[in-house]
Structure of Sugar phosphate transporter domain-containing protein:
Amino acid sequence: MGEMGGIPLGVIGALFLSVASSVSIVICNKALMSNLGFPFATTLTSWHLVVTFCTLHVAHRFNLFESKSVDMKTVILFGLLNGISIGFLNLSLGFNSIGFYQMTKLAIIPFTVLLETLFLNKHFSQKIKFALFLLLVGVGIASVTDMQLNCLGTILSLLAILTTCVGQILTNTIQKRLNVSSTQLLYQSAPFQAAVLFISGPLVDQFLTKKNVFAYKYNPLVMTFILLSCVIAVAVNFSTFMVLGKTSPVTYQVLGHLKTCLVLLLGYTLLHDPFSIRNVVGILVAMGGMVLYSYFCTQESKKKQSDDLVKEKEDVRTPLIMGVQEKENVEGKKLAKDSVV
């Protein structure tokens, strides 16, 4: 596979698809919820997953990818966990201020770093940590406004952080350890994620909005935006699993904050959302952190590849050297024996 600046083109493609589809679906959903008055976010997410599974099923029937059986217990638990994490994130938004919810999303990166360090023995250099810190400070400046705390909201936020971190780490780990592709894992797990949200979605949405999704008066324009949102969601879900499989949970979260900055910019230019000098400063600081993170990751990746190449050469040379030494020892013993005779 080709490379660009040391990064495989497949990774670049996955990152680009993730950014483009995520920003598109945010703008689509904002129009659907804010302008057309459709507030049922959790139920909408369940429809996203149903359409994603149906799309993948059709693709599988046309042999566009090969299904691979994975331990059913693992898939069920994984699917349920991801579905529950989405529910907790929506509840966190419902029970907290926007500012505290943004802090919850920011906290996912340090929690992911902590979990991977403790349980997967993964090492993060000081340079990487500094870049992540700069990124979080920038996004915090740009997006966090009010900070109102309450006990239930804090508990829901902690549960959302924990389930999201574990779910994203598992998405990466399962693909690598069980040798399944992002498409295969999404195809296997999407029905269980959809089932959790399909059952709980209407209840969560009614609890948060005091409205019933089944009593909502649908019209052709709303249905068009719902369908468009579901179509874009197929690309979002597919690219999410691709990015998590090809990179890491931390890189995926960094990408998520890039999307936040782009949404703020597009919201100002396309939807005429309010924009201040604080937003500009925050976005610039966050972009600086992202650039540094990308640069340090690329440098460390190149260094690791170089070290692995050197080690591989040493592993090849070692048997040759040992073989030469053994041959010399045998010849030395033979000469000694001849001289004694």
Notes: The mean pLDDT is 84. The chain is about 80% helix and 0% strand. The radius of gyration is 25 Å.
